[in-house]
Amino acid sequence: MPGPNASHNGEQEYKQQRQMSGAKKVSLLQRLSSWKGSDVQDVPPARCQNHQSTNNCNRNRSRSQSHDLSAATSTTTRSIRRLSQMRRRRSSYYFSENERRIRANDKEFNTQFKYHNNYIKTSKYTLLTFLPFNLLEQFQRLANFYFLCLLVLQLIPAISSLTPVTTAIPLIGVLTLTAVKDAYDDIQRHLSDSQVNNRKSKTLRNGKLIEAKWSDVQVGDVIRLDNNQFVAADILLITTSEPNGLCFIETAELDGETNLKAKQCLTETIELGEQHDALWSFNGEIICERPNNLLNKFEGTLIWKNQRFALDNDKILLRGCVLRNTQWCYGVVVFAGVDTKLMQNSGKTQFKSTGVDRLLNFIIIGIVLFLISICAFFAVACAIWEGLIGQHFQLYLPWDHIIPKDMVASGATVIGLLVFFSYAIVLNTVVPISLYVSVEVIRFVQSFLINWDEEMYYARTNTYAKARTTTLNEELGQIQYIFSDKTGTLTQNIMTFNKCSINGRTYGDVIDLRTGELIEINEAVPSIDFSGNPHHESDFRWYDRTLLDAVRSDEEHTHIFFRLLALCHTVMAETVDGRLEYQAQSPDEAALVSAARNFGFVFRTRTPNSITIEVMGRLEEYELLHILDFNNVRKRMSVILRRGNAVVLYCKGADNVIYDRLHGGQEDLKARTQDHLNKFAGEGLRTLVLAERRLTEQYYNDWRMRQQEASLAMDSREQRLNAIYEEIESEMQLVGVTAIEDKLQDGVPKSIANLQNAGIKIWVLTGDKQETAINIGYSCQLLTDELADVFIVDGSSVEEVEKQLRQFKESIKIFNRFRPGTNEALNHLNSGSQMDPLSVTMTQTSAFMQETSSTPTPPPQIPPPAISVVTFRWDDKIKDNKGGPDSAECNDVFGDPEKSEDGRTPSSIVVDESTGFALVVNGHSLVHCLSPELESKFLDIASQCKAVICCRVTPLQKALVVELIKRAKNAVTLAIGDGANDVSMIKAAHIGVGISGQEGLQAVLSSDYAIAQFRYLERLLLVHGRWSYYRMCKFLRYFFYKNFAFTLCHCWYSLFCGFSAQTVFDPMFISVYNLFYTSLPVLALGVFEQDVSDKNSLEFPRLYTPGLKSELFNIREFIYSVLHGAFTSLILFLIPYGVYKDGVSQNGYILSDHMTLGAVVATILIVDNTAQVSLYTSYWTVVNHVTIWGSLIWYFVLDYFYNYVIGGPYVGSLTQAIKDLTFWVTMLITVVVLMAPVLAYKFYLLDVHPSLSDKIRQKSLKKIHSRASSDVRRTPSSRRGRRSVRSGYAFAHQEGFGRLITSGKIMHKLPQDFAFPLGLGTKKTQALHNNVSEGNNTSSTKPTANHHNNNNSNTNQNHSSMADITGGELNGGPNGGLGGGDRRATGETVRGSGGSSDLSPRAPCQDLDTINL
User: Which helix (H) or strand (E) element contains residue 579?
Assistant: First the structure.
């Protein structure tokens, strides 16, 4: 950062440039004043501000006062004032468009730029705009506009054969129902907006701190934040309660990371403190970038007290963050409302519609075109008929007065034109408006079924599932891709110390002493009581008593293990209400230090150069010499400590990193520990390896000097320091392994397995580190050890990423080439190249097996592939389900092969569903993967992977990934998350699901569905989603069938009525057919229908597959329904027409009249509809019975009421018809003819081509077990026995906290209170040592040989401990204190190697530079 002189020079240059610019503008205004003379006489004096400094303003005022007698100078002064006004109004013209200027506590200055306030609005309407905007939005839908046009046509008497009421009432009903639903949804948005905007924030106004609403916070305001409070807007940190201006925030809402991040304000503003007067007088001007969505970037400058200060992202607190471990802080609002980075990453709310809706729109367009074609045909036919025949019957059928009668051709043409519109009205029921009413009602009721499902109720938070939208239910049954957040969605944000390995022995498993088997740990297993420890934590759980017994019996290795955990970390301790509490930068460290605390190794306090712990009730204080901090490259952290005259290095890190730095002679211990590591990794636990190294004083002093030289080097400083660190972090002794469980939400592995088995691909998009994301992938079984390979894309350039993608594609090609089921593999199979399935040949990179043969033949001469070992599954017993595709776009290569003549399938080769590939992409590489040149390659590989994990991604990148899959794969997507960082992804996906978790309700408020736990997503999709899709498809098929059967009767009748648009049925019957006679049965079908139970839907996830492929309703199914309806209408009309034409009743009455025919056809139509919907119904409820049979009875009741009570024109027609036997025989014959083909086809499908649901229903009593329940799902006990050869390392730590500790910036104490101000104990510390020594004088000391005479002399013992290095034994035993290397009688003053008892060989300031570098 440039010094103050450079800053001052820059300021002077800046002022000179501004003055020169002002001089040019003044000369221009002088000319203007000479032209306009008196035009500027009445300009009022303006307040000088904006871009002129106060000094310049005062100088200009004094100059104008001293020359007020000169006319020219007076004009110049007034011109300057005019310039000030112009610049005040249009100040943005004088700045770069990419700049943003804010002045603290100056509302007038900030108002001129019209910055957005902090008010958030997600609602769409107000009371005034609701009606016009909503109607405009509704009539943009094709169907509503179509029915509006029909209504207009029906208002024309010349062409309408039906009353306008038949269309007006349903249209008004649809518009009203939709408007009510939209109003309800918008009211909910208003309420959520109000909840956020009415949150309270402490704001500084007129020198006083007041509570203001979030919506009232303005840019430039100074606001106060208290601990655990959400940040109201993006603010510039100016002062905090912590030393050196530090504060800590949690950014889980932004990037999903739960580890704390440190922010630090400018040292020049720390002095403001909590002084409200000083804070109110703070008038710093901030020049910064314009609003953007980059979370990790901020560039700006603060101008204050004529000085400029650089601003970066470390000084900015973003909206959505939570202040942690900091009592208070103050900041200036830089971005508010929609300008905040959180809102910039939220994305835009998109209009969402289902695939069924889009298909319906396409079908409606087709139906309208079909309707126009039919009407045109009938219009031409009518014109021809009128020209040839109708003109001769004008006496009986007179033409209307508007039709020219002089010219027959012209009259016939006009009649045909009018008939075109008449038929458009008559046949409009083929697309009835009641269809949309019924669809909305079904969706509305299905939403309540989701809300009322007790199986998705979470008792702990008293939360039910909630459908926040009523228009997307059936889309839940067609999901192909799930995009999930990790933190808070798959996990609970809770880390627990689960297991460990110490000196080659594992701890944490509970063994049944009677059977010798492992006991599955659950709530029924009692945990160990730690209440004997005064510092124990009530929520800590441990079940293996052997570890506690080892600690209490002073077992050496366990003491070493826990002493290392208590000392090697960056945790801060503080006492709150008499209770010791820890403030950890990462949850991993918190879990480890907490475990040590509960086992009696309590971390008490620290200073920049000391650490104090309490071991079994006795205090131990260590001098902290160095912290070799953690970073993503080193993957380890170390501390170098001194107690007495001994120095030790403690280290923890990734297994592969630590193992490479162990000294020889530990092969047996390393092998046993590696086996434990594999076991822990197989269980999805996060592992760290612990090691130590004892250092001689001479070696440490020599290393420290070389380290200081490296820290001061001007060239390659970082590389030289890393080499120095590598030197001392070598030749270490293995101590043990920790295994932390990042606790998953209950049921996550089972849910993911079931969803994958249903054919859904799951992608995890998280802001966490790569190791953490991969570890969780294995933990939740999204990744498994049986995968052929896990591809990691981590290139930093386009070329590197492209190279990696190309290599991965080649690996997939080779794998597919050898995989059974592919064409090439099948060709080898058929050609006779057969292998014994029990003697599978494993090559370096793959293996494949073929059909059983008595004499195995050598494998074909094919170049060996270069991928990981692949295992295949052999099972001849699988006949019903051969394993379907992994996803919607996979080919059915694993489907049922053709059956042999005896009905048995030939010997099959089934690839285990767990094989395949997974892809892990880093955030910086994802940027290149989403670029146009690599987009297709990335998609090609990702679509062939079983799972994809994207780590270190920003919220906007999450949305871009979802948009890419939507656009390129044309797939139905679902996004699920629980934080504000997931909002953009939730909005971008077809379906957004929010989890009401620990990160607030932002995701829920932006979602379409809200659930309390991830495991409920399984039921939401496989049960409710599948049922909703199944019901909607069945409803649509039946609805189109019944309406085509009803409407096309008019077409057949047109052949016998001269195409005159005469209707077969009574106009009232036409009006109420879809409203009263057939609406309730089809609604009951759409609401309650189910082919299998919810239990079977979860047990057999393959039932979900038809939805992925849109098999239940598509163009083919629609055409089938249309043809079925056309056939029904033909039979419905022709049989009664043939019977009643020239018919005579037994009493001699003539039956061949139009009204009787219409009544008979209408009655048979209702009976047929009842029979058809009965066949369609698979699940009968009381509601189904009431609606189906009740509608049939209701038809006769309404017909009697209308004709006899109201006096309809068809009065007596049906009554006379049903008195005659002819009616009943006709109805019986017609219904039998209509139902026989349907029944025959249904039985044919059940017998020859049964679906999976048919099989489940038929064999529900036989307890069929699908592969999903036997192979894919793993119980916790079976997972516990797995071994993994992968690393279980994952550590959510962040670099930088070691530097804060050793520099003292993070400390609350003053420097004079530190225990080791110069590297050696103060009098207070020495007294503590003396007291400890006096308490142990009665203990016998056992002299031992010097184990370390120099750096390279290493012991062959398995362990060395801090107890071997210090000068005494605390507990009176060999492990109680510091013994080992140079054991001495305690109580003596320990001197450093420099020979002075008062000075330390270590210089603290140099150590600070070392840590910083």
Answer: strand 579-583
Active site residue 485: yes
- The DSSP symbol for 616 reads T
Q: What are phi and psi of 934, to 5 degrees?
A: -110, -5
The pLDDT tens digits for 400-426 are: 666 666 666 777 888 888 888 888 888
Tokens of 875: 């099972």
Are 734 and 666 spatial neighbours (Cβ–Cβ below 8 Å)?
yes
Q: Which token pair is 26?
A: 């003044």
Q: 1264 vs 1011, which has greater pLDDT? A: 1011
Band (pLDDT 50/70/90 cuts) for residue 710 is: confident
Residue 1275: its pLDDT value, please? 37
What is the token pair recorded at 1029? 């899709």
Chain Cα centroid distance, residue 1167: 50
The band of 80, judged by pLDDT with boundaries at 50, 70 and 90, is: low
Of 221, 255, 339, 485, the catalytic one is 485
Largest CA distance in the chain: 138
Higher-pLDDT residue of 1391, 1011? 1011
pLDDT value of residue 1329? 40
The whole-angstrom distance between residue 540's C-alpha and the CA centroid of its chain comes to 30
Terminal CA-CA length for the chain: 16
Residue 182 DSSP SS3: helix
b/e code 66-93 from CB counts within 10 Å (16+ = b): eeeeeeeebbbbbbbbbbbeebbeebee
What CA–CA distances, in Å, run from 541 to 237, 388, 561?
Answer: 39, 97, 19
Q: Is the dihedral of CA 1286, 1292, 1298, 1301 positive or negative?
A: negative
- Secondary structure E strands in 720-845: 733-744, 761-765, 789-793
Stated pTM of the model:
0.70
- DSSP track, 1077-1118: ISHHHHHHHHHH--SS-HHHHHH-GGGGHHHHTT-SSSHHHH
> Which of 300, 295, 270, 275 is closest to 285 using CA atoms?
300
Beta bridge partners of 282: none
Closest CA to 226 of 208, 244, 211, 215: 211
Q: Lowest-confidence range among 213-227, 251-265, 631-645?
A: 251-265
Burial class (CB in 10 A: 0-12, 13-18, 19+), 114: exposed
Q: Cβ contacts of residue 223 below 8 Å, gap of 6+?
A: 201, 202, 203, 204, 217, 232, 233, 235, 330, 331, 333
Q: What are phi and psi of 638, to 5 degrees?
A: -140, 155
Cα angle vertex 352, ends 346, 353, to 5°?
A: 165
Look at residue 1319 and tell me whether its pLDDT is greater than 50. Answer: no
CB burial class (10 A; 0-12, 13-18, 19+) of residue 1413?
middle
CA distance 878 to 581: 57
Which has the minimum average pLDDT: 152-161, 642-651, 1258-1267?
1258-1267
- What is d(CA 131, CA 795) in angstroms, rounded to the nearest whole number? 54
Q: Which of 248-257, 262-271, 333-342 has the lowest mean pLDDT?
A: 248-257
CB distance 52 to 84 below 8 Å: yes
Tokens of 381: 């036919």
**What are the structure tokens assigned to 200, written together?**
């309270």
Question: What is the spatial distance between Cα 296 and Cα 1328, in angstroms, rounded to a whole number?
Answer: 46
* Mean pLDDT score, 327-346: 89
Q: Any alpha helices (H) in 90-141, and if so which ranges?
A: 107-111, 130-138
- Which amino acid is located at 1125 in the chain? G
